[in-house]
Protein 1
Amino acid sequence: MRCLEMMGESQQLILMAKALMLGTASFVSLGLGLGWATPALGNEEVEALGSEGVEDLGSNEIASPLPESPAGRLRQHSITPSRPADLEQPATTVVEWMAQIEAAQVQITGVRLEPTETGLSIVLETAEGDLPTPTTQTVGNALTAEIPNAVLALPEGEMFEQFGPAEGIALVNVMNIPDGGVRVSITGTDTPPQAEVSTEAGNLVMSVVPGMATAADADEDAIQVVVTATRTEEEITDVPRSVTVITREELEQQLSVSRNLGDVLGRIVPGFGPPNGIGSSISFQSLRGRDASVLIDGVPISENVGLGRELRSLDPAAIERIEIVRGPTALYGGEATGGVINIITRQPSNERLSLTSEVGGVLSLTGGEDKWSSLLRQTISGREGIFSYDFTAAAEFNGGIFDANGDRVFVLAGDGSLSDADTVNLFGKIRFDFDDNQRLQLTANYFNDRREAFSLDPAVAATPGTQAARAIRLDDIDIDGGLPERNNTLLNLSYAHADLLGSELQAQAYYRYYDENGAIPNDERGNPLFDNIVRTQWNWEQWGGRLQLNTPLAETLSLLWGADFAQERSELPFDIFDPVVFDSSDGRTFRRIDTGTFVPPSVLDELGLFTQLQWQPTERWQLSGGVRYENISFSVDDYTTSNGQPIQGGNLNFDDFAFNVGTVFDATDNISLFASLAQGFSVPAFGRVLQVPPTGFEQVTDALDVTQPQKVTEYEIGVRGDWDGVQTSLAAFYNTSDLGTFFERGVGGVFLPVRAPERIYGVEATVDTQVSEFWRLGGSFSWSEGENDPLEDGNFVALSSGTIQPFKLSAYVENETLPGWTNRLQVLWVGSRDRAFDADVDFVPIDSYAVVDYISSITVGRGVIQIGIENLLNTQYFPVASQFLAGFDEQFNVAGRGRTVSLRYQVDW
């Protein structure tokens, strides 16, 4: 009974539950004989029933009559239960019953580790009986073996553990499994070990050999392959630019804190603006002080209107990895003056059938009503011959967002916040690998987002001083056109041929449609822009194609060349609602009576021709360079502005060349130096000009001074270091543009573009260190500054904090506490910035703040439990975007999220 006494109450209950499944004679006499008669009996009563209710306890048959069930009289059967061989006589008391169950399990009474020439032997000693053959699986660097019908009964305690018992072996752990059985975990130093199982003198022996990393595995771990920087597969160490890659594993980790992609990028990508905390618009999250172009599998989804909804176009469950090129590039066309964010979607599994299920919940620990959120995901993936597929359905049901003080934060519905939003995402990819060279692939994604009705608490405006924006629910609201909703549909057909007349061909055709009725209607009476009760909408459609060939010219020389075309159609109408009905219903009923034009229907065509040369003159030196010709045309028909001003339509045409050149030199086996000159090309957001035309504007061609494209030229130098367990990078950049774009708030609160010479410069650094077998730490640093010359008189002034965010410092420490259990603590420090305020550019200075998050990942069988705590210290803070916008209007003074717990479970079938 020693092992039984060592078990806790929960383990005893588990053993009892397992015993119910054995179907022994004791169970039948106790379970069926007592199930409807007495809910709880003592040992004496059990003994009495054990002798009276069974005619022949020595036989395998039970012929006693069964009591009547609550649902009616059961038919009598002769039951022949199975019985373990070592249960010669059934128990007549609960104590005897538990003892027999314990005796049915093989006890492991000792664990010995013996070094061998090839590694290590683990000997599991038993008092009597043979241990069953264990089942094994590999999780990370750990090999685990689970032994059923066994229990660990060591004299010194319930668990055996030894660190570093042999070279290549970091840890051996033997412990009882909570739901029964024994688990042996063997963690390798760099790779998972291998083991053979045998028996010796009644003991179970595991002969362990440390895992050996192949050269290919070592290269894969040390060098990441990226496609975004050069439009071809390229080792990241050969790219003369600053590149960040977020893998699926890193993304899963950060999603435990926030499922907002803008927040994920803001935490870990150097040079990208800090998280805004509550919305999904990236309008005030610049990349090196300029706009980033967002792609999905190479398809551009950044719209010219500039609403910043790109990262709210698909669910993170559909993402395989994200590649970010920091700094301007023209390789993918216009709009990438700050860099490129390429979201690469999931690929089909190589297995015949693979299923992944995920369920999770989010709880605001400071919130009140609607503090719960939940998510569901199901993925089915597989391969059959040349055909492979991946389908994912995901749904989120988000409650409110609450700050550290417990107040429900107010976010304009049009800002794409996760607050009180229900989302559905359907993703599908099918692929045909006709042979080793040819592949045809179709990807489709549909995203839907719906929000509940909330408004700004009137007490915020009534209270003196700047207050945090708080939300109140609008009950019984009735809106023609429905509550705020957005839909995004993306289709992408691609074909690849690895050897077409000696060249590698990639072709792509795509279509995207996006629409939204962005917000709750606003009472804009008195606003010279509308003077009505209105709600804006947005319809946006795009189609295009890409064609490229990578032609080898020599063993160390290749030429990439091709063409891109895209057409974008967009409009922003607005609905006008009946003011009488609105007033009589206390602002709860909105009856549409008319429509108007905020941004007129327009067509934007973009054609690009490009060529790129890659040359490796020596083993340690690489050169690259290229040019792109960009031709952009914009057309709009005659229209009337929202305040009644007639405008004559017309056509605008622009073209230019953008160049790039870069080099990488491997100074040593561990240190590489890189330098580049790169140009980006973009046109301003035409919609921002057309919605509130400048003074004297009567036709589209009158706006040439503010609609001219900008070309950004950036100079960058950097160094990368890669040693055993340490990876570092350091880069400095300086970019300029003769017609930079910044925004000033104009009539009706709309931000209008202003053109002036600009210069932006900064420094970025990263470090990641594996300090020991179980500890890892690292972080990143970003600092940038910028000025422009609005009067073009040679006197440069600071750019606003809406463009240049303060310095950002992130740091983390991560520990593999046990095999399969990892814990991470991370902190984000955002500094202060008052330079633009001192120059009378910003209305308010930016104050510094710090946010601490906690993440834990636990492997349980085939599944993983992810736990995250956002804002662990429950700090009341205001993100940079909130502080900057609060200078214009108090409704934008949105506090960051308070302490929030996330729990997700993902399992592979």
Protein 2
Amino acid sequence: MRSKGLTLTMIFQAESANYGESVGNVASLKKMSRGQGDQYTYISRQALRYNIVEQLGEALASVKAEGSGDKKVVQFSEEATIDKYPEIDFFGYLKTEKGTGGKKRSAKVRLSNAVSLESYKGDLDFLTNKGQADKIGENMNIAQAEIHRSYYRYTITGDLDQIGEDVVYGISLDNRERARRVKRLLDTIAFLYRDIRGRREDLKPLFAIGGVYDIKNPVFQNVVSIKNNCIDVSEIQGVLYDSIKEDTYCGVVNKSFDNTTELKDQLHALSMPEFFVIMKQKVDAYYEGN
């Protein structure tokens, strides 16, 4: 089977979608620092994986608890194999076994963190349970939570030739099933969301660029940025090598950005539904040709 990679870099808009440990009574967003100390919030790749698996519409891989006390570990069961569960076909597994090196499958679909494209300015939300406390005449409790609404960027990369193949168990799925799984993954990404603290945050892409290539590099991961509510087209054009240019497609939600016309003229941006239709056609074409 020819080696091919699917890679998509996407931008969505969301608010306060991944919290870390609280500091006192302040719920802290996950953040990283860049440059001269500017802070950027992020949604971890583990959180994105959780939401994708949850919304994939496929059976969840069976797990078991091994060990006891503080050494108890929850891991995939021996019966969890890729022919039954797309979850571990995509994201891999590690099954420890006493006295052996265990069984391991690396991820064939890899995610980056979704990092904010606008810096965090220290905004806080003031929270109380006044409504409940008033019912019984008690004093209310007070807490605070960091809040941040921003554009976020993340990249997903898949090894198309390795999806549906597992040398550990000697499993090889037919190409029709492989294509079905990858297209189901694309459908999930197109309408991805995240439930957090009573909110449902919409993670579906407002902008996306990528394709099916002979290389498996996350080509656009570091070159999709926003300035003054405009996608920086020149930065993207800087990595459009001749070897990938013809196979690259772009999608945008109309009027989401101030330079939608430029995106259509320079990158031939399609509507988002059209973009995902083409991506699924490219996946079909790959598997039908092998």
Protein 3
Amino acid sequence: MEIAGIIFGILFLMLFLGVPIAISLGIASAATMVITGNFQYLASVPTRMFTQLDSFTLMAVPFFILAGNIMAEGGISDRLIAFFELLLKRLPGRLACISVVASGFFGAISGSNPATVAAIGGITAPKMIQKGYPRDVTAAIAASSGTLGVVIPPSIPMVTYAVTAGVSVTTMFEAGWIPGIMLIVGLCIANMIMCHKYDAPDSTKYPVKEYVLRFKDAILALLMPIIILGGIYSGIFTPTESAAVACVYSLIVSMFVFKEVDRKKLYKILVDSCISSAVVLFVVSMSAPFGWLMTSENIPTILATTIMSIFTNKFVILFVMNLLLLFLGCFLETQSIILLVTPILLPIATTLGLSPIALGLIIIVNTSIGMITPPMAVNLFVSTGICKTTVGAVSRRIVPYLILEFCILLLYMYVPIILGITI
């Protein structure tokens, strides 16, 4: 436990000082090796960093980031929203419900929370404000809807978790659908109750021709997740290959069909995607020496044994696990949390009889909720920028959505049969 105290002490000190998570992981690992006199291990750090990234599965991350950025700029989100506006017009609080459903559908394409908030919220938010929704309410709806981005497969954090935990990416994608649908239904019901005063159902009778035109305009966007996920589940291509297919498909549709992306915009998309990919993969690479050091010193097993000796009830342990993940979600971003806690929580989950897939969903949903929990609330930052309001104002409005999503999390955690997973 002495080495555990050293490595975590240095890590949290670096984070407290505001050092980026990737650098913090590297410094904690190297400093611990020096302090404990294991100088020979330092030479293996670069090799371990490279080996961590030398993964075919991990190649899906930059491809999904690129595909999400192309779709956000390529007019795909506009056509999805136009279609769902007609489909959900009879619901009270319909614009809020449209934001949820469209975010879930876009999440099935992009796999990213901030991209979902920006793409869908950027279109629905102005319409909601014009309709009479307060700006802080609008921002809260956009931010909470954006949490579906990483829960609905395919999902970038699911790929990261699968690589870290050594489980099948396809199985993670298959398991993610039910909690994602539960969140969509829950958020829509909440919006119908809370937002009916801003947005009454549209009783206008549209001709069948209008439905056909909207569907025809959105068909290429609607087909995209079917092609991607259908290809994965049928075994036609792997999750990594599906990410590449998503890039090619979105590029062809955006440039040559919708004609929303030109060469200048494509260059900006590529640059932004490279930067985002580099940040994620740098964190992943720096987690390699950290994870190896913990494993070599048997730290995860020691921590698991300690926690199991303090708490004996399985459900209490699961509840404490959730509180820990929610707390970390307030301060760290999703990829960092997955890489940090997976080696620690996996032995605990195994001891409890919890499958690695179920653990992965618990981690991912918790970290997604963390993206609407200040101070590290990326979804809130994006939505407040769109709605021109403050994080403080939106933080009060986001509370009902936080409570709702946490209750749904507890529901499928304590009733795992809903997921079809044996606990």
Protein 4
Amino acid sequence: MRRLAVILTMLTIVFIGFGCIIPVLPLMVAGTGARPFHLGLMLAVYSAVGFFISPWWGRLSDKVGRKPVLITGLLGFAVGFIVFGLAQHMLWLMYVARIVAGGFSGAVTATAMAYIADVTGVEQRTRGMAFAGMAIGFGFIIGPAFGGLLSRWGVAVPFYAAGVLAILNALWGLAALRESLTPERRGQAAAANTSRWAAFAGPLKYLYLVDFVSQFCISSLEGVLQYFEMVKIHATAFDIGMMFLISGIVGAAVQGGIVSFIKHGKELPAMVAGLVISGIGLWLILLSRNFWTAALYMTIFGASNTVIKPTLQSVVTKKTRVGQGLASGLISAMDNLARIVGPILATVLYQVHIGLPFIVAGAVAILATALVYAYWVGAQREPAPVSAG
């Protein structure tokens, strides 16, 4: 339990650092005189690098252990954040910083999830993943407020703060985090030398696609929500921030208070419920009439979407036939791919009709229940794995 508490605290600190830069990232890009297009491109570049490298980090953590990879990732994050702060008025250096941060992203998130899979038993796996989601959500709630406060001393200050947090987190991890993989298990992973596509084989591939859909819906909403609500209810930036805050708090409560109590073997029904209700939530956003209805509908989407990831990670880490690191790395890669596709498609659809991104994303979420069914059918025909790690 102590090892789980340490890794959850580290995850919270990581995402406080992430959240810290959210309020000032657009301002830093605008300060170079660059068009807003570059902000979207930077986010896409970060995700693209993460898509290709995350499975490699996961596979490496299976071979050498979670702790060294996680510490390396945190130090890499620190470099990325600090370089971005130093890049004020230098657009090219900002791109370099985002490439560095994207390259190390899988070393942190995928490895942390693999660590949680290592230290939780089959019966407690969903609870461990739900607590991880709650820790991440908590970090994202605190981070933007902290970053907004620090920005009073300059738009680069939150980046330096995020870098210092990452360094302190790495030092604390060196002292407090115990390795979760035995030398025997590391040796087995090194001997196997498994390809990333081995993790995508069999019925589990359908759940990796469900993960893509879940993140696609989130990133699509993030790409156009502010534009939509500005037209629909004349929302301000503060209003949008408060909607995300309310949704984040409720989502964290759902993960800690409901998802963590989902029993082993009940993950798939919970996943289906999360997909259906989140799809309905996206459609309800079209009916926004004022701040409170908009916040309610967004919270319905956000809270139900938070059910999908921990239940999915629980099943994948219990059923995978490859190392936990590689399996978690592939999930991270699918997240990054969705973060590239979602905002681009959503903004294109928005230009056709302002409600179209929500209609399409909602339909995709509900149709993704067929992927869960396809996994269930395939899993019935497949013999149980010999081990999950």
